[in-house]
Amino acid sequence: MRSSMEENEQLKVLMAGFRGSNLDASDFASAGVRMQLVTDLQDQDLGAALPLTYDPDAINRYWNTRPTAVITRITQLLTIAGTFIGGLVSDLIAGCLKENEVKRAIELRDIVTSLGPAYIKLGQALSIRPDILSPAAMNELQKLCDKVPSFDNTVAMQVINDELGAPWYEIYADLTPEPIAAASLGQVYKGRMKTGEEVAVKVQRPGVLETVTVDLYIIRKLGLMLKRFPQVTTDVVALLDEWAARFFDELDYVKEGQNATLFAQQMAEDLPQVVVPKTYSQLTSRRVLTVSWLEGEKLSQSKADDVGDLVNIGVICYLKQLLDTGFFHADPHPGNLIRTPDGRLAVLDFGLVTEVDDEIKYGMIEAISHLIHRDYEAIVQDFVTLQFIPPGTNLKPILPVLAKVFDQALEGGGAKNINFQELASDLAQITFDYPFRIPPYFALIIRAIGVLEGIALVGDPEFALVDEAYPYIAKRLLTDNSPRLQV
After folding, report:
1. Which contacts of 70-78 are long-range, i.e. CB under 8 A and separated by 24 or more positions?
2. Average pLDDT over the chain, rounded to whole?
3. Which of 4, 109, 182, 444 is least crowded, fewest Cβ atoms below 10 Å from its Cβ?
């Protein structure tokens, strides 16, 4: 079965997408990229009426009273993406959305950075959704880069003043004259506190909230229109609302700082080798984030002898998030994993996190236990719990297929010798033939482990992450005191 799957180009593309093979870890935009925001559309008197947490009704009310601003934004979008939208409408009318989705994904990737942060982030979110896009379309959207030109430094310093209540030079002893990195939501400066500590200061772009909400308003209206077409089987509005609620959290730097602090606390006892920048909460607001500066190099670019060891630590770190804390760093990306000079693994950027509820967390542990005992009937039921299989599905046709997959995975030494990426690939293959899907949280797991494994394989072609992961999983199975796992 595996040899035939290796010849399946669609599967190869899907797994390359899951593993993050095309992720862009640049610090700045490519030449010629320009992002259009709606800073000229802000209403200074009524801007505070925009919700700071996702509320589609409040957003609807706000922009319903500003038709001129909405029309202006639509004109901007049509100017940038008119050809793409025309092609999409043509595909819809002709009933060939599926056939042309890769072509449209390439077109979208080429223009989306200019459209602003909502479109960039939505494209990146769709790049791990095989239940919505084809593997090739996912792969194209992965090539999206969230890096855009920096905005004016004078404006950034004014944002610091407005948010923290004083000019930057009264707060910090020093800030770099230019940002050291720039992305769609904000840009980062390196600075020094008056007490001497080096810090990173992230400043949000002006107009981001206005741009994001007007774009969500427009996309949502379009989604409601698409409901009229039977060819569109995806509930675009429900998908948008689910994603937008998480995206709004990224706009709040206070929450990002709190996420980093919580993550550090959860890792401190078991994984002291994992380090997270300290948040200076008194110098952090919704649009300004101040954290400790961590020296180091991207783990993906490091030539140090301990890279393999740090990858193993990273794998255990993500397993701990999945099986223990349930608090998951949802942006596994080569640019967010740093090797510090003292040989520790630094994890950066906690704007995007997701919570894995107990049903999924314990369901995953139970599935691992059932796998070790080759209880495949129980595993099929576990996969319903874990959202791989829709409730109510006839499980009889799927059972022998999964049994074959797991028998192959376990041959040659049992659970300790499972190749995670081959197992994920086999599971992904099933999605083409059966009512079986890869849920978004599991796609993130594949992405995280794929990124880490890819880094390690550069220096060690024989690297096997299960060698380190298996003892952690075994310990987790034996020591968890949850009544559910003691049954």
Report:
1. 70/214, 70/217, 70/218, 72/38, 72/41, 73/38, 73/41, 73/211, 73/214, 73/215, 73/218, 74/218, 76/36, 76/38, 77/115, 77/215, 77/218
2. 81
3. 4
Gap between the Cα atoms of 16 and 106, Å rounded? 16
Residues in the chain: 487
The dihedrals phi and psi of 75, each to the nearest 5 degrees, come to: -60, -45
**In the block, which residue shows the tokens 């409040």?**
58
Q: Say what the pLDDT of residue 171 is.
A: 97
Name every residue whose Cβ is closer than 8 Å to that of residue 452 and which is 6 or more positions away in sequence: 311, 314, 315, 318, 332, 337, 465
pLDDT of residue 290 exceeding 80? yes
β-strand 297-298 against 337-339: which pairing, if any? antiparallel
CB 160 within 8 A of CB 178: no
Which residue type does 2 have?
R
Q: pLDDT-based confidence at 5, cuts 50/70/90?
A: very low
Token duo for residue 468: 């380190």
Pairing of strands 345-347, 337-339: antiparallel
Q: So what's the pLDDT on residue 170?
A: 97
- With the CA atoms of 256, 260, 262 and 264 taken in that order, what torsion angle do they form, in degrees rounded to the nearest 10? 180
DSSP label at residue 49:
G
Per-residue pLDDT reduced to its tens digit, 197-253: 999 999 999 989 999 999 999 999 988 888 787 766 667 788 788 888 888 989 999
User: 156-171, pLDDT tens digit by residue?
Assistant: 999 999 999 999 999 9
More confident residue, 274 or 104: 274
63 and 217 in contact (C-beta within 8 Å)? yes
Q: Which residues are catalytic?
A: 331
So what's the pLDDT on residue 203? Answer: 98
Band the pLDDT of 6: cuts 50, 70, 90.
Answer: very low
Contacts of 131-134 spanning 24+ positions with Cβ under 8 A: 131/437, 131/438, 132/234, 132/239, 133/101, 133/105, 134/10, 134/98, 134/101, 134/102
Residue 187's H or E segment, with its range, is: strand 186-193
**Separation CA 187–CA 456 (nearest Å):** 30
Q: Return the DSSP state at 410.
A: H
> Token pair for residue 54?
């996702």
State how far the alpha carbon of 459 is from the alpha carbons of 20, 63, 74, 286, 333, in Å.
18, 53, 49, 41, 18
Backbone angles phi, psi at 398, to 5 degrees: -85, -30
Q: Between helices 253-268 and 307-320, what is the axis angle to 10°?
A: 100
